[in-house]
Write a structure and sequence with these properties.
alpha+beta, four-stranded antiparallel sheet, single chain, 5 helices, DUF3164 family protein, 42% helix, 2 domains, Phage_B3_Orf6
């Protein structure tokens, strides 16, 4: 039996079998390169080139984020020690802003709570639907629009928290509406938090702040 020799050119995505060039197809099998359309191969090479740059950039951003958080945490610990604060939890936690002496550069940390809604939300929706079905038509269209936006789900199957909280702006003495608002409050569950870092600068004290665009929240 003839021996099969395999050699892979990882950067180009080409595998050589017994001297012949193949590419791995979407099913995991090998397709002769000669049978691949030219535009498909050019697309393949373009994507590989872009991903080749994107992966190390992502890793660099992750390292930058880690170093930035470490620097801020160390600064906060030193500040707390100076003023005798024994324990405040995790150093650097919370919304804070740091600036240079000249006031031209700024680093800001923001911590947003991650929330989800429990089953009480569907109870609230049922009570709200009862209200809308019995209230007069006058002014109900606007409220129904708010309710529709509040309980619509996006492509990921998630409900907009901001749209739900907009319902609290509607004033009603209907006991069912008031109970619905209580149910929404009870439905809120804090499941964690996420820290964001923002970097800004300005060229002079009367200039507008310019945000340094770095999407490192997921890095």
């Amino acid at each position: 039996m003839e021996a099969v020799t395999l050699e892979e050119k990882a950067a180009a995505g080409i595998t050589i079998v017994n001297g012949k060039e193949y590419v791995t197809n979407a099913d995991g099998g090998l397709t002769p390169l000669a049978l691949v359309k030219a535009e498909d191969f050019l697309e393949d090479q373009m994507v590989r080139k872009i991903i080749g740059f994107a992966k190390p950039l992502s890793a660099e951003l992750a390292r930058f984020k880690a170093h930035t958080r470490a620097d801020i945490a160390e600064f906060d610990r030193n500040l707390e020690a100076k003023y005798g604060l024994v324990k405040r939890g995790r150093a650097g936690a919370g919304n804070q802003k740091y600036r240079t002496i000249d006031g031209l550069m700024s680093v800001e940390t923001r911590v947003n709570k991650l929330i989800e809604f429990g089953p009480q939300l569907q109870v609230a929706k049922g009570l709200i639907d009862e209200c809308l079905n019995e209230w007069t038509e006058d002014g109900r269209a606007e409220i129904r629009g708010l309710v529709t936006r509040a309980f619509n789900v996006d492509q990921a199957g998630k409900i907009s928290k901001d749209a739900v909280f907009e319902l609290f702006k509607i004033e009603s003495e209907d006991p069912r509406w008031m109970k619905a608002m209580e149910a929404i409050n009870a439905a809120v569950r804090v499941i964690g938090s996420k820290e964001y870092l923002h970097f800004s600068f300005r060229d002079s004290h009367d200039a507008e702040w310019i945000r340094i665009s770095l999407n490192i929240a997921d890095a």
